[in-house]
Design a protein that fits this description.
By secondary structure, the protein is of the alpha+beta class. An 8-stranded mixed β-sheet has the order 2-3-4-1-5-8-7-6, with helices on one face. The protein is globular, with a radius of gyration of 16 Å.
Length: 160
């Protein structure tokens, strides 16, 4: 099974947790001082929020897979379509150990394809477990909209 993934930057985590908990009818499945995640079954969505971005809004979108074969199929499809991708392989991000790669759509929105391998106590590798939001300003996730090393392809058109 694949699950749609949405990660938003929010200005007020507590207020946003309250809003999304009411919207989804359930509390987060994971909550940290700077992060919360809901693993929803209907619709199948991994919805995450954090205070790690420069400004509120969409950080990135993605597709979470249940296993390595589904992730490999997504990567193969992207490569066959000649889409530029950044393959991070096994990494630590968002309180999880994952295998992932990144793509960027024509608008500059980052897309993450990943499978979760396990849970970890820190947002990213090398970060102390009790790190503050201020100390964590350098997120493991790519900068909003444009992961490092992935050129954005131009469609050649200036209109939608």
């Amino acid at each position: 099974m694949k699950r749609f993934h949405v990660h938003l930057h929010v200005a007020d985590l507590a207020q946003s947790i309250g809003f999304y908990s009411k919207l989804f009818g359930q509390q987060p499945s994971r909550q940290e001082a700077d992060y919360a995640k809901w693993m929803l079954d209907d619709p199948a969505v991994n919805f995450a929020i954090s205070q790690r971005g420069a400004e509120p809004g969409i950080d990135h979108l993605g597709i979470q897979t249940d296993d390595a074969s589904e992730l490999a199929a997504l990567k193969q499809r992207a490569e066959a379509a000649d889409l530029s991708l950044l393959d991070e392989g096994e990494t630590t991000c968002c309180y999880a150990r994952s295998d992932k790669h990144w793509l960027v759509d024509p608008q500059g929105i980052a897309w993450e394809h990943f499978t979760t391998l396990g849970s970890v106590p820190t947002f990213s590798a090398g970060e102390p477990a009790a790190a503050s939001v201020e100390a964590a300003s350098a997120s493991c996730c790519p900068p909003r909209g444009k992961p490092v090393g992935i050129p954005v392809k131009s469609s050649g058109s200036s209109c939608c």
